[in-house]
Amino acid sequence: MDSTFISACEGTGLALGAGLVVGAVAGAQKSQPRAVAVLAAAIGAAVFASALNSSDHPIWPGLLLGPVCAILAFALAASLVAGAARRRGAAAGALAVYVILAGLIVAGLALVVAPVSLVVLVAVIALVLARRGREGRKYEGLRVLR
Predict the structure, then answer these.
(1) Dist. CA 29–CA 132, nearest whole Å
(2) CA angle 86-88-75, nearest 5°?
(3) pTM of the predicted structure, to 2 decimals
(4) Burial label, 133 (beta-carbon count in 10 A; 0-12, 13-18, 19+)
(5) Is the pLDDT of residue 87 over 70?
(6) Measured between alpha carbons, how far is residue 123 from residues 50, 73, 76, 118, 130 in Å?
(7) Which of these, 5, 19, 105, 18, lies nearest to 52 by C-alpha position?
(8) What is the pLDDT of residues 42-86, one digit of tens each?
C-alpha cells in the first residue's frame, strides 16, 4: 500500500499531463476553450481520483484537486499554442506536438518519480502567473497615447 503523499503526487502529475494535452489540442484547433476546459477538468478529476483509489485511499480529494491541476495546465497550454497560432500559423502545430509530448512526459514521470509532479505544478503556476502579468503590460505604452 502506497502512502497518500505518493498517490497524491501521482494524481497531480496525471492531472497536469491531461490538462497539458487537452489544452494543446484546444489551442491548436482554436476551439471554444471554456467548453474544452470542462473536459480537461473532468479528466483531471478522474485520473487524480483513480490514482488515489488504486492505493485504497479516499477519492474525494482527487475530485477536488484534480480539476484545479488540470485547469491550470490547460490554461497554460491553450494560451501558449493559441498565441503561437496567431503569430506563426503553421508553427503552432509543432508547438502543440511539443506541449502534448511534455504532458505525456509529465504523466509518465509522475508514475515513476511521483514527487516531480510538485515541481511541475509550481512551474505551471509560475508560468500562468507570469503570462497573466505580461498580458496586462502588453499594451501599456498604447494606453499612454490615449
Answers:
(1) 22
(2) 50
(3) 0.86
(4) exposed
(5) yes
(6) 24, 10, 11, 9, 10
(7) 5
(8) 999 999 999 999 888 988 998 999 999 999 999 999 988 888 888
Is 52 in contact with 104 (CB distance < 8 Å)?
no
Write down the residue that cell numbers 511534455 correspond to: 102
Which grid cell sits at 40? 480537461
**Terminal Cα-to-Cα distance of the chain (whole angstroms):** 63
Q: Which residues lie closer than 8 Å to 125 by C-beta, 6 or more apart?
A: 72
Whole-number Cα distances in Å, 71 to 16, 107, 110, 131, 143: 8, 15, 18, 15, 31
Alpha-carbon gap, residue 8 to 93, rounded angstroms:
32
Burial of residue 145, with CB atoms counted within 10 A of its CB: 0-12 exposed, 13-18 middle, 19 or more buried = exposed
Task: State which amino acid sits at residue 137.
Answer: R
Distance CA 87, CA 25 (A): 17
